[in-house]
């Protein structure tokens, strides 16, 4: 049972434009959602998170939107830079737990 | 966030052998986690390691196959026992950050079993 899904395995975007990454979940018990970036041969790097009681969180070029009724979140990267080329994972945490459940990842390629 | 290192960074092992992966954190942390990322797959939690108690394993993972030690608040090991090619994966350790819901990851250990 895949509780967190990223339906787009890859995304290609021009430098300077917006990257939009999507993530869907099924479990209503998730209370925090996180995005991670992963370069090859490195561990995932935490990017940004959002609480289930909010609908938007912004940090520099990164904004995460949460639509709780649709069980959907998205990560916007504006403007995209070549250094943003990586695999992005969304993850979710169940309330009062510690376990993170990860989506399958989206590979982003930012073209100069 | 804590700085996390892992040893080895990669290894090629023969089936039937065991490998112990070390995870070192530069500060004391309560919880450490071990994940597996199989080729082309997402990250899956193997177990949670608390100092002074037995590790808590997720469904599908057992202590005999993945014994974990947590001797102090900065160090943990994961052993992959009696390896088969299906164990070829990246193994990652992580710790909770300043906010309990955030986790920070080590660089991973890439294991290939032949």
- Overall mean confidence score, pLDDT of chain B: 93
* Strand-pairing-aware structural class of chain B: mainly beta
**What's the rounded overall pLDDT mean of chain A?**
94
Rg of chain B (C-alpha, Å)? 13 Å
Number of helices of chain B: 0
Radius of gyration over C-alpha positions of chain A, nearest whole angstrom: 13 Å
Overall 3D form of chain A: globular
Work out the helicity level of chain B: under 10%
Can you give the helix content of chain A as a percent range?
under 10%
Q: Separation of termini of chain A?
A: 38 Å
DSSP, total strands of chain A: 11
The rough form of chain B would be described as globular
Q: List SSEs of chain B in N-to-C order.
A: EEEEEEEEEEE
H/I helix tally of chain A: 0
Query: What percent strand of chain A?
Result: over 45%
Structural class of chain A: mainly beta
- Into which percentage range does the β-strand content of chain B fall? over 45%
Distance from first to last alpha carbon of chain B? 36 Å
List keywords for this structure.
heterodimer, A: 112 residues, mainly beta, six-stranded mixed sheet, five-stranded antiparallel sheet, 11 strands, 0% helix, 57% strand, B: 114 residues, seven-stranded mixed sheet, four-stranded antiparallel sheet
Layout of SSEs?
The complex is a heterodimer of chains A (112) and B (114).
Chain A: E1 4-5, E2 10-14, E3 19-25, E4 30-38, E5 45-51, E6 56-59, E7 62-67, E8 72-77, E9 86-94, E10 100-102, E11 106-111
Parallel strand pairs in A: 2-11
Antiparallel strand pairs in A: 1-3, 3-8, 4-5, 4-9, 6-7, 7-8, 9-10, 9-11
Chain B: E1 4-7, E2 10-13, E3 19-25, E4 31-37, E5 43-50, E6 56-57, E7 68-72, E8 75-80, E9 89-96, E10 103-105, E11 109-113
Parallel strand pairs in B: 2-11
Antiparallel strand pairs in B: 1-3, 3-8, 4-5, 4-9, 5-6, 7-8, 9-10, 9-11
Description:
- With 112 residues, chain A is an all-beta fold.
- Chain A is built from no helices and eleven strands.
- In chain A, strands 2, 4, 5, 9, 10 and 11 form a six-stranded mixed beta sheet that branches. A five-stranded antiparallel beta sheet of chain A has the order 1-3-8-7-6, with no helix packed on it.
- By secondary structure, chain B is mainly β.
- Chain B is built from no helices and eleven strands.
- In chain B, the strands form two sheets. In chain B, strands 2, 4, 5, 6, 9, 10 and 11 form a seven-stranded mixed beta sheet that branches.
- In chain B, strand 4 and strand 5 form a beta hairpin.
- The radius of gyration of chain B is 13 Å and the shape is globular.
- The model of chain B has no long low-confidence stretch (mean pLDDT 93).
- At the A-B interface, strand 4, strand 5, strand 9 and strand 10 of A face strand 5, strand 9 and strand 10 of B.
């Amino acid at each position: 049972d895949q509780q967190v899904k990223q339906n787009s395995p890859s995304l290609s975007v021009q430098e300077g434009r917006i990257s939009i990454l999507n993530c869907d979940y099924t479990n209503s018990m998730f209370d925090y959602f996180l995005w991670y970036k992963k370069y090859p041969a490195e561990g995932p790097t935490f990017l940004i998170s959002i609480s289930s009681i909010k609908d938007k969180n912004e940090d520099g070029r990164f904004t995460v939107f949460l639509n709780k009724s649709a069980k959907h979140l998205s990560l916007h990267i504006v403007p995209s830079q070549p250094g943003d080329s990586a695999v992005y994972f969304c993850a979710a945490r169940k309330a009062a737990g510690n376990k993170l459940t990860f989506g399958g990842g989206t590979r982003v390629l930012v073209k100069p | 966030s804590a700085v996390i290192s892992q040893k080895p960074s990669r290894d090629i092992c023969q089936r039937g052998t065991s490998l112990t992966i070390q995870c070192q954190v530069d500060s004391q942390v309560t919880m450490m986690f071990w994940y597996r990322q199989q080729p082309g797959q997402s990250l899956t939690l193997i177990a949670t390691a608390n100092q002074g108690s037995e590790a808590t394993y997720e469904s599908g993972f057992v202590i005999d196959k993945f014994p974990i030690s947590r001797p102090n608040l900065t160090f943990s090991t994961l052993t992959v026992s009696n390896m088969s090619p299906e164990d070829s994966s990246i193994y990652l350790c992580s710790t909770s950050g300043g906010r309990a819901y955030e986790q920070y990851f080590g660089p991973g250990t890439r294991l290939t079993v032949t």
